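#random but structural
TW: two for the price of one
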Amino acid sequence: MDVGKLFQLPTVSSSAVNKRKWGAPPPGAAPAAVEDAERDEGVTRPAPEPKRTRVDEFEPDDGDDEEGRFFGGGLTDEQERILEIMNRNATDSAESGARAVDDVAETRQRLVQLERAIEKNQAMRLKYPDDPHRFIDSEADLDSALRALALLTTNARALYPVLLHQGSAASVVGLLAHENADMAAAAIQVLEELTDDDVVDAADEAGAAAMQALVDALLESQVLELLVSNLKRFHDTPPSSDDAAAMENYESDRQAVYHTLSVLENVVSLRPSAAEHLGRATPLLAWLLARMLRAGRLDQNQAYAAELLAILLHDNDANRAALVRVQGVDTLLQVLARYRHADPRDAEEAEFLENSVDALCAALTVRESRAQFLEAEGLELMVLLLKAKHQARGGALKVLDHALSDADGGAACAHFVEALGLRALCPLLMRPMEGKGALRAPDMEHLLGVLAALLHNLDSDSALRTRVLAKFVEQSHAKTDRLLALRAAARERVQAAEPRLAEEQAVLAAEGIESADIDALVYARRLESGLYALQQLDYVLAWLAMEDDGVRTAY
């Protein structure tokens, strides 16, 4: 039904529908903090009720028509509902425009109150430095004014520019150095809310630009350095006693550390170049490693430290090199060694183990890290993890794949064979292909990557290479038979995925995607569907056929 044609009314703009309201708390904001801020300033915002607009020209007449065809203005129930919705949207659009102006005005007022609260608190602290009771009220006012900034996240595209124009972003960053650690923690929490990527919808270009401008202003104010330096102020180690005050301080500091790591992750997500600055100009990498290594039951901050470290090392050679300077490889090996005799206790600890493995694999792309890995007996540890029947075995295969597959991995491959790595590796190759005891597909791919690296990097006439080849000849070529069976299964998976990939390719072509991008995407899908394993198997089998006459004769 063409509503505009039916009523001959202008089309309602889509931007007038579902507009975000100022009074709604931002995602992740503490409702109590928002309510306190509004109560302190005397702000009341009753929820607007839907407004029904009466259209006079459609009012019912006296009902002269006996059949009632024109009673109610001649509209059906459906038409009346449509008209009511359109009138309500038009009213809401006007109210939203007026409300946006009020939002900006109220934001300016809040920012002025924040600046005044900062100045008053500083003055009172200077005047009565040894008497906290004299400046505690000004500190409470400052806390209230600071937390009220969480309301800016309800309309980032309009209100973040106001925050930047008045220079208050730098003021919030300055509070990270406040003498009161609780005030610094409050500033950290506000920064976390302001930089949360859920604040701005991906399709909102103006909002995304406002968020990026805010992050740039924070970086100019040296927010990264202040955040990292604040980590030393918070002691998130559980107290040795059951003292209530000590437990309260511990809980407060634990939350402050968590929010700090969250702000750092938000900034790196919005400005990837900030990751290199963190590794180069701050001691964050060393702090994260020390936090991961802390003994005792895994806590939330320990798990977050591993996640953030993996993020900072991902696709960042500068941070990988910086990790070498703080002996990061040795620390990560100590973390993994904990899982030689035990599995992770829960899903959070399993994720911690996975992030630790990912961080170590990223570090091994640097030559100096590989040297530290060998020196710290990393290969020996990985062999022990392979022999242990625990969850860390999959991570050990992944680490070995990265450690041995480099172009200059000859020394590492020789070290692996000398450390009796084949005794731990070959039984995994012979595990059932399906069902209980079977390796996961990613683990099998890493195992094949290790075999390919050994055949590629070991010297052709060396005794170590002969030991590798002998494994595929013994027991009537049992392991070679397993490679051929794995190849048949991988080929079958690739062929089974072709119809689905053809449909996906047709859909992408219909959407106007360039052919080169389609080919790259489809090729990546094929790799995920078993093509990568098939390629590795062909590589290993080709080496075996070239090196061993018995393999060529038997097959």
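TW: number two ↓
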Amino acid sequence: MRRWNGWGDDTVDFEVPQAASKYLAKLIGPAAPPNIISLEEMMAMVPASRLPMHPLLNTDPEERIRHCFGQSMSDWIYFRGGLVPIFPDGVAFPESDKDVREILGFAKEIAARVIPYGGGTSVVGHLTVPKGEQSVITVDMRRMNKLLELDKQGCLATFQAGVRGPDLEAALRAEGFTLGHYPQSFELSTLGGWVVTRSAGHFSMGYGRIERLFVGGEMETPVGTVKIPAFPASAAGPDLRELIMGSEGRLGIVTKCTVKVTALPEAEIFSAAFFPGREESVTAARALAQAGIPLSMIRLSLPEETSTTLSLKDGWQMDLLYRWLAWHGIKEQRTMLLYGAAGTRKKVNWALRRVKEIIKKHHGVYVGTSVGKHWYKSRFKLPYIRNNLWDLGYAVDTLETAVPWNQVPVTRKAIEEGLRNALIGVNEKVHVFTHLSHVYPHGTSLYITYIFRLADSPSETMLRWQTLKKAASEAIVRTGATITHQHGVGIDHQPYLAAEKGALGMEMISSLCHTLDPEGMMNPGKLVK
């Protein structure tokens, strides 16, 4: 069963090794386990629903609790620390487009607000319930999860938008296909959620980000149904797909998605290499991105993240690795490159040979496939460490951006320094580390993780996080980077969106929202206020 107050399945844990606990205590100080409120205590905070009865609505207090949060840091502080949140008044579980239309019509009739809910994995405040006099309905799409059509000739699949990652892939693999879209939240998130947040998956370098995969669909809005045919190409004016992608539930509820699918690869291999320092490894990553090699992924952990990642492991194998790398001149400033290729065996072997040539040219050392295999098997388990670190007294949060290659050093440095210095005023240290999660010929994403100690009270922890988020976001805007590469805008990034879109761009978005949602009932506060 899903945790009500944390990440993922409540039967899965990511125990923090003792070596890692010591590592954190040395870097930012020892921490104390916080007080975590129980589900029963949270249920006592739930007020009576303001909604009239409706057959599609569930007003059970526990159901409302489980739908008032995503996975942003502010959400965590609310549901773990006991800061009283705002709850939806009811939760709907539609099973058809007709049900969705009925819910929107009912909400319009009673002047309620509506929050679409996919997998509940948003880390930037997409699911935050707005304060106000109006009642709020959360629409959980989990029952709209069917494969509706598979066009094997055209390699297109149409799903209901509430299908979750594992179910989507299982349906496709049974027919010999894959979507190949694997965000970190894959096990929990939905196809519709990927589309409306412009998601990027681990293997986007090969299969494409969701905007390359999404070719058509339907969205129910307060004023009608938007239908987008799945043409192979069209010059008929602006592409309406772009209005749906990144809309974050602000325009309506996506009910159907047609996506490009690919035949299952004959071979799929993940390998690793290490470099002696930051500059050599970033240069190598750029060379790989620009070489036209058919890779499915490149992920480069910079020195601080490499050290942190390796601190989660211990044993004689790690000692052997450190000695072997040192013998090759790769010591304290080591960086770790993970990369993969998928396709025919011949294509994969050729791609991996070319990668080795570039690695060697930039003073890197190939270390085989064991590290890559371990990452592949455990890649969806890593977010669970948030639960266990919180229990020890540490908060973990992430943010990301994307920049042209020539802006990588200055942007990375500005964000990292902003985070490291943000809590000096309260005499707290922050551990910050970065990896390049996706690379492109003209630039790369920067994915930053930061860890800080929980305060004695939830309200003080909230102030610490708000200070950190503000410092990082201002650094991103100041250096001209995008406020988000893959997480979307939500509430957390909304104040910084105008810096990227400009006044006229924000007016265009507002006009579109008003056209499809004139009463402002859909997920208010997201994208535009």
